[in-house]
Amino acid sequence: MTTLSYRAALLDIEGTTTPVTFVYDVLFPYARAHAEAFLKSAWERPEVQDDIALLRDQARQDAAGDFPDAPQIPDRGDADTLRQAALANIHWQMDADRKTTGLKSLQGKIWKDGYAAGTLTASVYPDVFTALRRWHEAKLPTYIYSSGSVAAQKLLFGHTEEGDLRPLLAGYFDTTTGPKKVAQSYRDIADEIGVPTADVLFVTDNLHEAIAAREAGMQTRIALRPGNAPLPEHDHLTLTSFDALFSPAD
Ligand SMILES: CSCCC(=O)C(=O)COP(=O)(O)O
Ligand SMILES: [Mg+2]
């Protein structure tokens, strides 16, 4: 039996558990294609208005900072005008592949209908499914930490090609806990799950996230998956399959 050197696993989604092609060729185009109709039908819902408020605040911060051209969403106006402004901001953020909390929360709500209708089925690497099952059998809790909203994460793992994987997961974290490239976020997650950072294994495709997790004291692996962005030189351990985590050497 393999002895694991960690007591909890924390996993990124895009480029780690799930092919980047599923996110960029399926999820993001779906959100773009359905954003306008979604805003029209769901505009009055309080939780949608909460997202619009997040987008509005973000747009102001962007304009005052690195993105002077960020499309703004006025405080007041008729619903059509506000919707068009929100749509312009959403399209602009999606073009720039922003990972802001407001955009991610709204995308999750748009995807919900697609999963429910069976139009969307999430892709999870087979070796991840095996690892989730093995960790679950070993009573080692597995958590997700993604820029995608917690609601979107639950939808994704609830509707995979392997069925509903949520029973294999112990919890979910998104950017409402903190940015993924900031060490404090990983300390906060460790506190929340009650496991010292040194006993948590974080797997991601993003070097900056791995650096932040290591700064917090976590063990790291960088996932090298087909289509992932090339990385500069680094000294983190890598994997091409989660199977490597269960080899006798690991
Ligand atoms: C349910 S997550 C959908 C993918 C997504 O929106 C995203 O931003 C993924 O980012 P990650 O932090 O998992 O690389
Ligand atoms: Mg990722």
Describe it for me?
The chain is of the alpha/beta class. It folds into two domains: 8-18 and 122-246, HAD superfamily/HAD-like (Rossmann fold, 3-Layer(aba) Sandwich), CATH 3.40.50; 24-117, Transcription Termination Factor Rho, Rna-binding Domain, Chain A, Domain 1 (Orthogonal Bundle), CATH 1.10.720. The protein has eight helices and six strands, in the order βαααααβαβαβαββ. The protein starts with 7 loop residues before the first strand and ends in an 11-residue tail after the last strand. The model has no long low-confidence stretch (mean pLDDT 96). It binds the ligand CSCCC(=O)C(=O)COP(=O)(O)O and magnesium ion.
Report the sheet-strand fraction: 5-15%
The tally of beta strands, per DSSP, is: 6
Radius of gyration: 19 Å
What is the 3D shape? globular
Structural class: alpha/beta
N- to C-terminal separation?
A: 12 Å
Helix percent reads 40-55%
Strand order of the largest sheet: 3-2-1-4-5-6
Uncertain spans: none
* Secondary-structure element pattern, one letter each: EHHHHHEHEHEHEE
If you average the pLDDT, what whole number results?
96
Assign the CATH class of the largest domain.
Alpha Beta
Biggest sheet statistics: 6 strands, parallel
Number of domains: 2
Query: What is the CATH superfamily of the largest domain?
Result: HAD superfamily/HAD-like
CATH-assigned fold name of the largest domain: Rossmann fold
Small molecules (ligands, ions, cofactors) in the structure: ligand L4RZE5RM, magnesium ion
> Which architecture name of the largest domain does CATH use?
3-Layer(aba) Sandwich
Q: How many distinct helices?
A: 8
